[in-house]
Design goal:
Chains A, B: InterPro entries: UDP-glycosyltransferase, UDP_glucos_trans. The structure is a homodimer. Chain A has helices spanning about 5, 15-25, 35-50, 85-100, 105-130, 135-140, 155-165, 175-185, 210-215, 235-245, 305-315, 330-340, 345-355, 360-375, 390-395, 395-440, and strands at about 30, 55-60, 75-80, 145-150, 165-170, 190-195, 220-225, 250-255, 265-270, 280-285, 300, 320. With about 450 residues, chain A is an alpha/beta fold. Chain A has a six-stranded parallel β-sheet with strand order 3-2-1-4-5-6, sandwiched between helices. The relative contact order of chain A is 0.09. Chains A and B meet through α1, α2, α9, α13 and α14 of A and α1, α2, α9, α13 and α14 of B.
Chain lengths: ~450, ~450
């Protein structure tokens, strides 16, 4: 084959190149994750990258809610100024306080205090990581190719800046203003942001197979209040249990508290469910044999954080029903469950659109992390808007200039008009005087 | 395998699903292309879609510059009010007039007249298509799934609106304002826009293999003035030929005019070159064995249209040298050629970034056209900004409201201050009067 011919077939041979690259290159990746549900999906990406022979080091606090070691990657822990028990109590309070019988104002203050506690705890973990000289020196000597982090806390970005590493961000969707704020104050060198607007589904479900197979034609309902809340007051639990007892499906519920006394036969409690990353949702799959692309309709009970936003988006597309977790009755739950279980058209359509993509999302995430590692960043993918001042971004300089020119023009025209008018008036004044004096 | 387990592995099985889909579904696609260089890359996509068993119908005028029938798809022609000779003359004038010795002002008027002629010709072709009742009825009866078009002329969009078809646009990059203009006046239902910011390279080069193999270690230089210009005045051609004679590479030049008398031995003229879609560029591949990912440095001589923009972008990234086609001397060309041939670092870097993608661009384009055909559109991928009025888009309503509130506040504060001041003044006035009268 002639050289020229070969040279022109680059596009066609790209998959081969990518395939070869798997065996040709392996890099070093530093991961600074965020504790909580976001870690559950980030972990899938980190494990996949480690399986592709990259040297992956994950830095995490010695006490955490969901951050855990794995056989797939190296973990470096750093000390924190709180015990595992203190941490569990702080997270536990969020669930319990949501259901107490305080006024709206008192409850708002209490929830704010809870969230502040969590943030203070995370910030102190971050401080302890950055002041751990031994760890930071180890990270420095390791000469990583890139850093993967969640930018909700500035720990990862600061470390990236200090170690001069290109950064890949993995987040659920940060408000633009907050991102831009971080970007300007802190001079972050962000390379790529993954907006995790789709959740990745887990597949290690073997231990639940027996129950699922027993559920028969009706299938199962999975009940979870998110990864951070696993226990609620007994009164509320009983309300929920009563509703769950009215449906023919088998119910799997992640619950670490005391079993409610009215627990129905179809409801089983578990300390942990693999779908835990599906925050604050009822998952109610139809037990039909519609195949692997079967969509899952939802009853959503948003708690806090971005759950309300997620829930409302699902509801607005007709793919779920949202309930107020504080005011719902067992009848509300029962009606909502039946509504979603027997009306799957919208969720099926959304599912079709969601799954119809040119490349699986995990492969895409792996590609872009490796891209940043290979090319030491991706400045050409960064919107040029990030380098503009806010005055430029909103075109205020242009508008002000045009407004200035317009006003100046108006001013000059007015002055000219006034001058002309005065001249005319004077002349006509003189003329009328003349004619007056003539007529006299 | 349990049902639940299957259900949860959707992401992993996506490639299989896509593979199965190739054989399961075939749709009907209507293509309304734009004559000129853009057709050369659109044709690659259209042929690929036809190969995937879709029923593809391309509508084109009976006389055209580059639009041609193909064995891969059905072509429907419609009559136009000009002959092939008239069309050739109009396009030929553009090249000849660029080099004439008129003043800048006269030349601008002439080029504007040329472009107007082309646009008038295209518009009349468009009118003839839309008023061809027999053809439009045929298209209506065919019940297509989607329409693929270039939106520079409104022919495709109007037809899509009339036939109520979801539309996929394929374009080089239309100014935003123009797009938004079309979008609001004409109520287009655009589904997906491909911004063709990367060119697709062709691969049918067999007839040139002998020449390329003969070129030896220096390799070849390909010279093309774009698909619309293939002939220039003899004086300018001789200037270029003189420069091309000074380099050791073999030169392939697409030229339909009379061969210049000073043609060097290393320069061969051809009526057609497959790289024709590389508008207004010198293509100067090094003849080395750097493999299929070999980047091609360029000397660029922009003519008209978006060529200046493209050329300046390449130059700003250090990947090419731009020459003024009207003022360049043979020495300028020679120096520029040697500069790019012996300085390939930047173009190599750009090429690496460009080729490093998760899926080949042609496959991606095929995926999204088929996506629109499968789901009858893709409204969820359309930016919500398109549904905003321009006042909303630029937040002028919000700014005006805030400004209004601010001004009202300022006015009220001022009035209050004035009122207070007056009260104080009056009192102090009375006081001073009183004290005066006392002292008297």
């Amino acid at each position: 084959m002639a050289r020229l011919n070969l040279r022109c077939q680059v596009a066609a041979c790209l998959p081969l190149l990518l395939f070869l690259r798997v065996f040709a290159e392996s890099g070093k990746l530093l991961v600074v994750p965020q504790d909580g549900s976001i870690w559950l999906s980030m972990k899938v990406l980190v494990e996949k990258l480690a399986q592709r022979r990259h040297d992956v080091v994950v830095v995490m606090p010695e006490n955490a809610l969901l951050l855990q070691t794995s056989q797939h990657f190296t973990v470096k822990t750093h000390p924190v100024p709180y015990t595992q028990e203190q941490l569990n109590e702080i997270y536990g309070n969020i669930g319990v306080n949501t259901f107490n019988s305080l006024s709206f104002f008192e409850k708002s203050i209490q929830i704010h205090a809870n969230i502040s506690q969590v943030m203070t705890m995370m910030a102190s973990a971050c401080q302890h990581l950055l002041s751990d000289e031994e760890l930071v020196t180890f990270l420095q000597d390791k000469k990583f190719d890139a850093l993967l982090s969640d930018p909700v806390l500035p720990c990862g970005p600061i470390l990236a800046e200090y170690l001069s590493l290109p950064t890949v961000y993995f987040l659920r969707g940060l408000p633009c203003a907050m991102y831009s704020l971080m970007n300007r104050r802190m001079m972050l060198k962000v390379k790529i942001c993954f907006l995790k607007t789709h959740k990745i589904v887990f597949s290690h479900m073997q231990e639940f197979e027996a129950i699922v197979n027993k559920s028969g034609e009706h299938g199962i309902v999975v009940f979870s209040l998110g990864s951070m809340v696993s226990e609620i007051p007994e009164k509320n639990a009983m309300e929920i249990v009563e509703a769950l007892g009215t449906i023919p499906q088998m119910v799997l519920w992640r619950y670490t508290g005391k079993a409610p006394p009215n627990l129905a036969e179809n409801t089983k409690l578990f300390k942990w469910l693999p779908q835990n990353d599906l925050l604050g949702m009822f998952k109610a799959p139809m037990g039909s044999n519609e195949g692997i692309c079967n969509a899952v309709p939802m009853v959503l009970m948003p708690f806090f954080g971005d759950q309300m936003d997620n829930a409302k988006r699902m509801e607005s597309r007709g793919a779920g029903v949202v309930l107020n977790i504080l005011e719902m009755t067992s009848k509300d739950i029962s009606v909502a469950l039946k509504t979603v279980i027997y009306n799957k058209k919208n969720i099926q359509h959304l599912s079709d659109l969601h799954l119809d993509r040119p490349i699986p999302p995990l492969d895409l995430a792996v590609h872009w992390v490796e891209f940043v590692m290979r090319h030491k960043g991706a400045p050409h993918l960064r919107p040029a808007a990030h380098d503009l001042k806010w005055i430029q971004y909103h075109s205020i300089d242009v508008i002000a200039f045009l407004l200035g020119v317009g006003l100046l023009e108006l001013f000059i025209s007015l002055k000219c008009c006034l001058y002309c008018c005065r001249k005319c008036c004077c002349r006509s004044g003189r003329m009328s005087k003349k004619s007056k004096s003539k007529s006299q």
